[in-house]
Each structure stands twice: as C-alpha cells, then as structure tokens.
C-alpha cells in the first residue's frame, strides 16, 4: 500500500516529534544522573528562575574542544603561573609575541604555555604575531569561573553552573558559580583581579545577591597570593555593617577567613581545591554536623590519644 503525499508528511512529523521527545527524556535523565535536577530544585525552592548558565562563548576554551582538550586545559589552570600567563595573553589579545608574555614566567615556560594555547585553538598565528582565536574575550573572569565550576564537578562530585543569571535576582551582575555540594547550595563569587582591583560597589552587589539567593554557604574567592586582610575583609565588614549590624571576620588559617562559618573569604595561595576543602569542612563541622562533645575536633585519632592522668581504665 503506497502512502499518499499527505500521509507521508504526517508520518515524518510524528517521527520528528518522537525524536524530540526522546532527546528531552535523555536530557532529563542526564540531569538526574549528574545531580543538575537537584541543583535546579534548590534554586526553584528559593523562588529563583534560571535565565542563563554556562556561557561557553565567554571562556577561552573553544566550544568544540574535545574531552581530552578540556581536561588538559583544566589541569593547567591549577597552576597559578598559567593563570597569570593567560591574563597577560588576554590583555594583549589583539596581537602579542612571546617576549610580551615573560612577566610571570621564564621564556621556557612561556614557550610551553603558548604552544598549549595554539594546540587547544585558544590562540593562533597571525603574521609574525599571535592573537586570540576568539577576539571577543576581554576578561579572564569567565574562564576562571568555568574552572571553579569544573573543580566542583570533577573534584567534589557536585553539579555546578557558572555565569548564572537568575530572573528574580537583584541587578548588578551574575552569580559566578553555583553548586550543590552534599545537598547544600554553595555560591562562589569569583574575583580574578588582585585586591586593589576590587571595588566597594562590587562587594555591595555581591552581598545583595547573597541575600537574594540565601545559599547554605558562600565564598568570595580572590585569585591572588596577596593578603585578604588589607582590603577585602575591611570592605566586607563595612558593607555588612551598613546593611545589618557590625561584624568581624575570623581567620580560619592563613588567608582564609569566615563569618559565622557560613561566609568564607579565601585566596589562591597554596592550592585552590585545598582552600575550598578546608572551608567546606569547617562549614560542615559548625553548621551541618552536630559533632558529639566526646569526639576530638579535626578528626584526631582516638586510638592514639593519651587519656588524661588519673582517668580510669577498664
């Protein structure tokens, strides 16, 4: 039996709809498996509607990069010297030579980093100079946000978005990174410039976004080895005092600070992942877990602990 023209078109339309439905089912299953559905639920439960996330066009890595290329780029971003190198590349993105990129690393290291950018398609040769493949890149910020989101996904097994815009959020910028870690909504404000480049208005906007989102735990992460106490902490204390009541941040260790074990200010000295883990553990100990009073804090081994003098032994 031959199909008429009309029935053939009708069949094609049905097949198209079935294909679209299957793709949607696959997307929903992937979201469930990755934990993204839970992250979305955490946003919805706070009255937040997602408008945009993960703007690939704003980061250095090309959108068609392979999984291996993405992994290679991610691993290199763990190096502070590479991140500083990328800032120089972006600053000179319209045309640069190797000699322009020796501010933070040796010529040998710069050659390796530049070769990597060419292999990944981030940069390309143009005459006797090099240029960024995507001339629209003006800031390292979105790439750093991508890296932090990837860190949550890869190292902490947590769904994460970067460059998030929410319909119901206050004006004044994006939510740089949002993740769901252990069932807790985490918000990370990412600053790629040194403290001297962070303005008071940025701190105020961050606090307003924080108040709108109401995450379980929040971070202000500054990618620098400089001190947080000189400018960032005073700005935060002053702005919070204006919005609510006087506060004082407490040093957790090194240049890691906290406010009531819920808001953390950290830099990238030592290792970024290690700094986040120290703070997340502190958050768990003081706000989520109720550690029995008879257990030593910090995971001290009970078997090796010496009993106090005069204590009874069974």
Task: Describe the protein's architecture and organization.
This protein starts with a helix and ends in a 26-residue tail after the last helix. The protein is 43% helix and 17% strand. The chain has 2 domains: 61-132, Arc Repressor Mutant, subunit A (Orthogonal Bundle), CATH 1.10.10; 141-288, Trna Endonuclease, Chain: A, domain 1, CATH 3.40.1350. The strands form 2 sheets. Strands 1-4-5-6-7-10-9-8 form an 8-stranded mixed beta sheet, with helices on both faces. Strands 2-3 form a two-stranded antiparallel sheet. It is built from 9 helices and 10 strands. By secondary structure, it is of the alpha+beta class. Helix 7 packs across helix 8 (232-243). The relative contact order is 0.09.
Taken from the alpha-carbon principal axes, the silhouette is globular
Radius of gyration: 24 Å
CATH domain class of the largest domain: Alpha Beta
In DSSP terms (H or I, runs of 4 or more residues), the helix count works out at: 9
CATH second-level architecture of the largest domain: 3-Layer(aba) Sandwich
* Helix percent band: 40-55%
The CATH topology of the largest domain turns out to be Trna Endonuclease, Chain: A, domain 1
**Total separate domains:** 2
Biggest sheet, spatial arrangement of strands: 1-4-5-6-7-10-9-8
The overall average pLDDT, rounded, is 86
Span from first to last CA? 91 Å
Helix/strand class: alpha+beta
Weakly predicted, low-confidence segments: 299-314
């Amino acid at each position: 039996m031959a199909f008429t023209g009309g029935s053939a078109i009708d069949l094609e339309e049905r097949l198209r709809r079935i294909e679209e439905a299957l793709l949607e089912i696959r997307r929903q299953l992937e979201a469930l498996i990755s934990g993204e559905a839970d992250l979305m639920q955490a946003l919805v439960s706070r009255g937040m509607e997602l408008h945009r996330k993960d703007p690939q066009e704003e980061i250095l890595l090309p959108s068609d990069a392979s999984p291996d290329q993405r992994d290679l780029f991610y691993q290199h971003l763990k190096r502070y010297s590479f991140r500083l190198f990328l800032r120089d590349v972006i600053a000179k993105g319209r045309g640069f030579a190797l000699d322009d990129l020796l501010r933070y690393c040796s010529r040998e290291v710069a050659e390796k980093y530049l070769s990597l950018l060419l292999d990944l398609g981030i940069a390309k040769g143009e005459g006797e100079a090099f240029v960024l493949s995507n001339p629209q890149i003006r800031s390292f910020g979105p790439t750093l946000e991508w890296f932090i989101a990837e860190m949550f996904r890869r190292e902490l097994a947590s769904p994460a978005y970067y460059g998030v815009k929410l319909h119901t959020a206050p004006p004044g910028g994006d939510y740089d990174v949002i993740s769901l870690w252990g069932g807790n909504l985490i918000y990370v404000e990412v600053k790629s410039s040194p403290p001297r480049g962070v303005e008071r208005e940025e701190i105020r906007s961050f606090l307003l976004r924080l108040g709108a989102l109401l995450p379980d735990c929040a971070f202000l992460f500054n990618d620098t080895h400089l001190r947080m106490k000189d400018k960032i902490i005073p700005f935060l204390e002053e702005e919070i005092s204006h919005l609510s009541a006087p506060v004082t941040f407490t040093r957790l260790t090194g240049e890691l600070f906290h406010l009531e074990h819920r808001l953390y200010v950290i830099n990238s000295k030592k290792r970024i992942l290690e700094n986040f883990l120290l703070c997340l553990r502190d958050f768990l100990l003081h706000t989520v877990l109720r550690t029995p009073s008879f257990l030593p804090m910090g995971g001290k081994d009970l078997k090796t602990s010496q009993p106090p003098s005069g204590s009874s032994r069974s």
